[in-house]
User: Fold this.
Amino acid sequence: MLSATQIEEFHRRGCLVVEDIVPAVVRDAVESEYAALIREMAEGLGLGWRGNFLETLRAVHLAGHDWFQPLDITLPGSRIEADTPFHYGPAVHDLICNEALLDLAEAIVGPRITSNPIQHLRIKPPSETVAADAPVHTTVTAWHQDRAVAHAEADATDIVTVWVAMTDATPENGCLIAQPFDGPQAMLPHCPLDQTAIPSGYLTPARAEPLPVRAGGVVLLHPMVPHAALDNRTDGFRWSFDLRYQHTGQPTGRAHFPSFPVRPGPAPDWRAVREMWLDARAACAQVPHIPIHRWTSDSPNCA
Assistant:
């Protein structure tokens, strides 16, 4: 649970680094789950197993295979087909339902907590190996506010982003950066560029602060704090998850994707949640594409 001082800092600045939250046993289970996925992918490409998840992923990545969406824990913002891949397994579910993470969320949104579906795997390869047309979640993350990537129906939802570090995140390998609050923070304009992004004229670069965190630590983000992530200038991979928790009963901002209560428990079984995602995929594949945000390129702010 957060201290009163930490809660005050979070609301005053809009961001908070909290170390040593997710134990190694939980992270190891997630890595084992992903190792099985990437082993199957690598063997299908004739690449073979390279000893661990990230090194095998490196081989798949360097071979030019599209590995991101099959590993992500949500459906994409682009057109969803009946066979669009995603991953939701027991170790990922246990991470989302981890009591230490829920304790942090409860300190921000209260005791009735729902897992919000705006969530992602983030794996950032060395930037020099990333193609220009690579998925946006594998490259530099543009400046944005999390409130802005949801539908307007959720503008009053009590929500917190919990950014979970699976590997150490440093300024060198692409940690988060944020522009902490300086008084009340309004919703800034966003433009649908390569990513949904705040135009540079609305930011104050001198106020940007890096938010390094060790593996097992988390960064808590207020939905209105402008933030981004640096590029990876190392030869290793930076790995994290974006998880979001909200007050139960309020709009999620992405109603065509599934949400589920996690506290008070018990949370649904992971198989039930995976079926919810499969049902959402099937439903989305049968209707016109549903945009995941409200912004249009014809706005004067995007000129």
About this structure: Residues 160 and 245 are 6 Å apart (CA to CA). Residues 24-44 form the longest helix (21 residues).
